[in-house]
């Protein structure tokens, strides 16, 4: 038994061009010449950035907080004051050192005695430091005493009285030399001596009474001797 004939296929159903011509040639594959650009290089991918919390911690470790920076840069005022050496320990210049050594080597000035020495008399007392009025008072008292002593030294009783007057009036002259007599008392003594130098014994005795009533606390140590000297000198 014979096979059936194959079905005919039209050119349009085969996909060829119209007219039944041969099929078009396929496009050749792309060729890669040596001059083509090299393939891209693949570098290792950068590590991913840490999360925000890790970045903050690393920033804190890298730079100290403001308080720590301030502490490292400058100490607080109390530490600065402790670190600074005291001013009196600073080195002195040679002139200052010399002045300081001279000041240390100078002996302290002697203290002025509070009262006259026990053995002071009119013949031993100094009057170089007296004021002008104090020097006149001392000179007047010494002159009256010398005049009385020259006339009465032969009498033992009167001589002893005059020696006692010399001690007490020597204390007065010592106080005048040491500026320990008040201005009011010194003024009264000037009036008394001025009257005595003129022979006005009444005025001299009157001034003596004023000193007794007005300045007894200051003048009690020599007023009795001064009264006796005025009485003795007025009787010569």
UniProtKB/TrEMBL annotation:
Pfam families: SRA1. Residues 1-135 are annotated as: Disordered. Residues 107-231 form the SRA1/Sec31 domain. Keywords: Membrane, Repeat, Transport, WD repeat. Residues 121-135 have a biased composition (Polar residues). GO terms for biological process: COPII-coated vesicle cargo loading; endoplasmic reticulum organization. It is found in: Endomembrane system. Gene3D superfamilies: Functional domain of the splicing factor Prp18 (1.20.940.10). GO terms for cellular component: COPII vesicle coat; endoplasmic reticulum exit site. It comes from the Eukaryota. GO terms for molecular function: structural molecule activity. Residues 54-106 have a biased composition (Low complexity). The keyword GTP-binding does not apply. Residues 20-53, 107-116 have a biased composition (Pro residues). It is a peripheral membrane protein. The keyword Transport applies. This is SRA1/Sec31 domain-containing protein. It comes from Bathycoccus prasinos.
